[in-house]
Design goal:
2 strands, two-stranded antiparallel ribbon, mainly alpha
């Protein structure tokens, strides 16, 4: 009989083990090791989610500093928008490049390298006394994001165990919490101790480098085998090239509506609250947190529900469901503005994990390319939106841009054009016991 006459072959016997001389036997990397190809590697998911939290919290410090930088350096709204555009365009242009390269040749240790760029960007930001240095800091932070996001999305897919929506949501929810904590960190630290205190956040970047190095070890020895096994299981949907292209364009249009609206909130919500309602800067930062915190909840639920009922339904609800609230927002008082912002953040945020996983299922085997395209497109739109909205605000008012953007969620009607892939209710892959 095969396997020394044993009557049962467990998945444990099929583990892929590194050579005896491998450094994976160290205690730090053993904690990240999950050799089962088909189990959900929650340790890895939580690790990249936590690093995503730190990454986006550090990056959101830049936007949180806008009011004080605008006053100190006497910037106009267009110059503020250009700072965001520098960061976002750097990230958007390079993310698809990183994704396409990693589809052809895996780069397991790119994640800690990307975080090093963010670390240096924060140090430059802490000493920036000129507009040129601010743009340079934005560029370095954008470069870190360009590497971090597509590769982390690939790791989430590797670690998913077939629960792709859940994995994508867990990864993204870390970033949502980071964006929400950024204004609070700015209010608690930067506004009290000044711009130089940004340098302390570089310690968070250093902690992320250490964590991501261990993720890179797991990626190299286990993650690559997982992504190959997943590619063999999932075939391309029975759609023509024109149908796939059309679906991708619809998804990008939905990302457009979501990201432009989020740009209006992220870059100008504090200005809107200060100018329109006369609140203090600290109060405006707290209202921004009130918008961003439900974004994390919506992101998590969007991926989980998409795994169960279908991603197309989540996309329908998310983008179009925000329309009634966005239309009412420009006409509300301070209390109802904060109240409605909670529902807008929750509904809009649930779309992104569903959109990314839906696109990955449209073009299986191109995880890095798709992740880089959609994350890069989202970043680019945020930068373009921030610059364009700043230009409009200088010529009209900050209130007008919220009136203008209130109609954007109506683009959610385009979700009707998406084909039904019939792949959503997919159970996680589990080890199988084989009997003779």
């Amino acid at each position: 009989m095969l396997f020394n006459g044993r009557s049962r072959l467990s998945y444990r016997n099929l583990r892929i083990r590194p050579k005896a001389s491998s450094k994976l036997k160290s205690s730090s990397s053993t904690a990240f090791a999950d050799n089962s190809l088909h189990a959900t590697a929650f340790t890895i998911l939580f690790a990249i989610s936590f690093c995503h939290l730190l990454n986006d919290m550090m990056q959101s410090l830049l936007a949180a500093l806008y009011p004080s930088l605008k006053a100190r350096l006497e910037l106009n709204f267009a110059q503020v928008g250009l700072i965001t555009a520098t960061y976002q365009f750097t990230a958007s242009l390079l993310q698809p490049v990183v994704g396409m390269y990693s589809d052809k040749r895996a780069i397991p240790f790119s994640l800690p390298v990307g975080m090093m760029f963010t670390l240096v960007g924060l140090l430059v930001l802490s000493i920036s006394g000129t507009y040129a240095l601010l743009l340079g800091a934005s560029l370095l932070v954008g470069l870190g994001s360009a590497i971090f996001h597509p590769e982390s999305a690939r790791v989430a897919r590797m670690a998913s165990g077939g629960r792709y929506g859940l994995a994508q949501s867990l990864f993204q929810v870390g970033g949502n919490f980071g964006q929400a904590l950024g204004p609070l960190a700015a209010a608690a630290v930067v506004l009290n101790f000044g711009q130089a205190s940004v340098a302390w956040f570089a310690l968070m970047a250093l902690a992320s480098v250490i964590i991501l190095y261990n993720v890179g070890v797991w990626y190299k020895h286990h993650g690559i085998a997982r992504i190959k096994a997943s590619a063999k299981l999932h075939k391309a949907p029975d759609l023509s090239r024109a149908q796939v292209t059309g679906a991708i364009l619809v998804l990008l249009a939905l990302i457009f509506s979501k990201q432009i609206y989020f740009s209006a909130i992220a870059s100008y919500y504090t200005f809107y609250l200060i100018h329109h309602f006369g609140v203090s800067l600290r109060a405006a930062q707290l209202y921004l947190f009130l918008f961003l915190a439900p974004v994390a909840v919506g992101t998590l639920l969007g991926g989980m529900i998409g795994d169960r009922i279908g991603r197309k339904y989540v996309i329908w609800f998310s983008v179009l469901g925000a329309l009634p609230f966005s239309l009412l927002l420009p006409y509300m008082n301070l209390f109802w503005t904060g109240f409605l912002s909670v529902f807008i953040g929750f509904t809009l945020s649930s779309a992104f994990p569903a959109i990314v996983v839906y696109a990955q299922e449209l073009v299986p085997g191109k995880i890095g390319t798709i992740s880089g395209l959609f994350f890069g497109f989202a970043f680019g739109l945020s930068g373009l939106g921030a610059a364009a909205l700043g230009w409009i605000a200088d010529r009209t008012s900050v209130e007008f841009i919220y009136l203008l953007c209130s109609y954007l969620p109506a683009l959610g009607l385009l979700a009707a054009l998406l084909p039904d892939l019939n792949t959503a209710p997919r159970a996680p892959l589990v080890p199988v016991t084989v009997k003779e």
